[in-house]
Amino acid sequence: MDLEAPPRAPKLNADAPWDAFDPHAYIDRNYRELLDVDAEIIAYVRDHFGDHFHKRFERPVLGIDVGAGANLYPALCMLPWCKEITQLELSSANVEYLRDQRVNFGTGWESFWQVLRKDPAYEEIHENRRARFTDTVRVEPGNLFDLVRRPAHWAIGTMFFVAESMSDSHAEFRSAVACFLRALAPGAPFAAAFMAGSTGYDVGDEYYPACDVDEAQVHEALRPFSENPRVLRLDKPTDMVRPGHEGMILALGHRNSTVHF
Ligand SMILES: C[S@@+](CC[C@H](N)C(=O)[O-])C[C@H]1O[C@@H](n2cnc3c(N)ncnc32)[C@H](O)[C@@H]1O
């Protein structure tokens, strides 16, 4: 009898069980407490967006968080700068989670918000942050590959742990990055985060595919859409909870004005 586990079959984005994604199991593993690495990421993103908008008057703008899943901090990072934030999400379970959170977000997200308050624009809306979140966020069920139909629509964007954590195909990884960036208007600031060296991950009882990327591949995927993005490698912290990856990569940049057909 052969007791060896069969190798996992390759999985494209459309093959994974997204509707069975358990947001509560995902939060328990990743966001139950604020990890040092998330605090570091939030501080970088806060400063990147702050640098952009403190110098400019054209705000509030439209923002998008692509593949929002069960993570509210990308939307919180965009909150002072936006009149509307679209949380685009494929999984019906995550859409339901996001709709509940929009009305009254869980107290667990407060520690993430605290990191943002160091910038006066966030501090200014601190008292009203919950009402502001409810009024600004719009949860949209949908597939990021369909963003090709809405080029240059949003003026700020985030995409966290999606392009490399949705498929084991590098072609789909590059395509997801392209779809995200094409949806942003010229000059729009963006932040995108990636797991480095991930080979897949469990959420509750389900297994989800990932593709192994490094800083060079992230750079390569961003290059047509952004001149000189900052691509930062954040070390794997000791309390990191997702097995099978080597750390995190954060990309910060601005959408260029090149038109892509
Ligand atoms: C690893 S989770 C990341 C969630 C969240 N952004 C975060 O920072 O933790 C990947 C997310 O991408 C979503 N997703 C997968 N394929 C998608 C697609 N084609 N379009 C939109 N969202 C997708 C999943 O449902 C899931 O919420």
UniProtKB/TrEMBL annotation:
GO function term, MF aspect, one: methyltransferase activity
PANTHER family (alphabetical):
NICOTINAMIDE N-METHYLTRANSFERASE (PTHR10867:SF17), NNMT/PNMT/TEMT FAMILY MEMBER (PTHR10867)
Q: What is this protein called?
A: SCO2525 family SAM-dependent methyltransferase
Pfam families associated with the record? NNMT_PNMT_TEMT
Signal peptide position in this chain?
none
The upper taxonomy is: Bacteria, Bacillati, Actinomycetota, Actinomycetes, Kitasatosporales
Which keywords does this chain's UniProt record carry? Methyltransferase, S-adenosyl-L-methionine, Transferase
Q: Which InterPro entries match?
A: NNMT_TEMT_trans, SAM-dependent_MTases_sf
Query: What's an example Gene Ontology biological process for this entry?
Result: methylation
